[in-house]
Amino acid sequence: MQAMDKHAKPCGWTFVSLRPQGQHAALRVALAHSGACTLGLSPWRLQRRPDAAGAGALRTALQASAVIFTSPGAVEAAASFGDAFLNAPERPWLAVGDGTLRALRAHGIEHAIAPSRMDSEGLLALPVLADVRGKTIGLVTAPGGRGLIAADLQARGAQLLRADVYRRVPLRLPARALARLSRSPRPWVLAVSSGEALERVWAQLPPAWRARWQAGMAVVVASERLALQARALGLATVRVAAGPTAAQMAAAAVALHADRTQHR
What we know:
4-stranded parallel β-sheet, single chain, 5-stranded parallel β-sheet
């Protein structure tokens, strides 16, 4: 749970984040004056892979016709390889979203671009990926996640050069986290920007907690695809945010909370 600063509103509702361990701060900042407390239920932590095999895969991926970075974590992990990252030839480097784009530019990659719709579908619609048949596309990422990107590009005839520069280390959902949630002020609003994260947390919920979420957990999601996934789990109150950034998810959560409060 977050500590409230002297200018923030009292904690009157709870925002539940499924971001990786240690990566909830941006959401806390975005919600600082909303009256929400932020509670993290992280399904994993990120671990870099600074080994020779990872460096070799990264060098190969960075030689491709275009290179896709799937997250800020992928950028930071790639940058930790040093020369393999910094001395790569200038190619179209593509970021899934604004956070990934900022991470690339922080490392001096000014030619990087990101779609206006900051998700897998938005990235796949970029003109630079319109005709990839027979081309090599680098994918700098982690095992699992963003499966839509790889599957779509391969279906279009691209040769995928994948570099898994970090991995997601699964975390058990501790009973104390659910105990904190049970004591947290309602209503509860869950933020979902990763379908895999939602699946992993949902699989660890006891049946009674699944029923509680289905009965009373509102959800904000980063895309229509994630909305379908949430509804398939029986989470009925779902709102699609303008995108996956902390500011966009927070804005959608605040609006959803306001609407629910008004119609009580």
